[in-house]
Amino acid sequence: MKNILVPTDFSDASTNAVEYAAALAQDFQAKLILLNVVAPRVVIEDISATAYLITEAELSENNKKLMKNEILRLSEKYHIIVEAYLRKGLPTEVIEEFSASKRADIVVMGMKGKGKSNSKFGSTTTMLIRKSDIPVLVIPKKAKFEPIRQITFASEFVMSHADYSILDGFAEKYDSNINVLNVQKNRQLVEVENTIGKTEADLSFAKFHHRFESYESDKLEKGIEEYLKLNPSNMLAMVAQKHSFLKRTFGTIHTKNMCYQTLIPLLVFPAKQSVN
């Protein structure tokens, strides 16, 4: 892991994510890249265009000052290389393009937590999880950095062909134990595809301490939360399957997003192909 990208809007949640990412950068001797995106604003009819432009300019100038302060503070505190950039545009699109141009290995995003699903920055985080081609690490507002000794990898054992190199890096750096969790409803029978998916996971984590766990629950999110209470972890990991696991979590209005529910960092990997 060489380049860590952290979008920030200078809120408490994103500032906490910056601190977490800086600690990771220190441990991995990686570059920390800060990005502030100023989204286009809708001009209200009774406000002059001049007033609107001045307001946007002032906002950008203020953010530049904040970025400069962050560079000095973080580089001095963590002894790392820090770069900072300001861009205008739609946050998700800008973050995607910028992460590619900077060859970011991971995007670290802040999240306010339970009951905050309507926040603008929270919406950007969940949208990015669906679209990103690289892993996204979601940091809850109250989560503090600590060595990642215990990792829970929640999976339906569906073939994903995901690139787990970031998780491998964590496991190697912190000598982590990985618990591969499968939440089942009413002791469902394991299908052939699931068996292949389990084998894929077993091979992916072969060189690390790992074990397979099953937990019975009528709801996916409930099962994960209950398991984590019984088996405390420093990180929860998932694969963003388009039509499967995170589709039920992030793609419906009937359940809360896992990134809003979790109290520990959530690492989401993009699947390399869709699951039909």
Structure description:
- This is Universal stress protein.
- Residues 1-140 form the UspA domain.
- It comes from Hanamia caeni.
- InterPro entries: Universal_stress_UspA (IPR006015), UspA (IPR006016).
- Belongs to the universal stress protein A family.
- The structure is a single chain.
- With 276 residues, the chain is α/β, with parallel strands linked by helices.
- The chain folds into two domains: 3-41 and 54-139, Rossmann fold; 150-270, Rossmann fold (3-Layer(aba) Sandwich).
- The protein has nine helices and ten strands.
- It has helices at residues 12-28, 49-78, 91-101, 120-131, 165-174, 192-204, 220-230, 245-250, 258-261; strands at residues 3-7, 31-38, 82-88, 106-111, 136-140, 150-154, 177-184, 209-216, 235-240, 266-270.
- A ten-stranded mixed sheet has the order 3-2-1-4-5-10-9-6-7-8, sandwiched between helices.
- Strand 1 (3-7), helix 1 and strand 2 (31-38) form a beta-alpha-beta unit.
- The longest helix has 30 residues, at 49-78.
- The protein is globular.
- The protein starts with a strand and ends in a 6-residue tail after the last strand.
- Residues 42-48 and 250-257 have low confidence and may be disordered.
Number of helices: 9
Strand and helix order: EHEHEHEHEEHEHEHEHHE
Structural class per helix/strand content?
Answer: alpha/beta
Average residue pLDDT: 81
CATH fold-level assignment of the largest domain: Rossmann fold
Query: Low-confidence spans: pLDDT under 50, at least 5 residues?
Result: 42-48, 250-257
**How many β-strand stretches?**
10
Mind telling me the C-alpha Rg? 20 Å
* CATH superfamily annotation of the largest domain: HUPs
- Main sheet strand line-up: 3-2-1-4-5-10-9-6-7-8
Shape: globular
Instruction: State the separation between the terminal residues, measured CA to CA.
Output: 32 Å
Q: Please describe the biggest sheet, giving its number of strands, its sense, and whether it closes into a barrel.
A: 10 strands, mixed
- SS strand fraction: 15-25%
Would you state the CATH class of the largest domain? Alpha Beta
Fraction of residues in helix:
40-55%
Shape-level CATH architecture of the largest domain: 3-Layer(aba) Sandwich
* The number of domains: 2
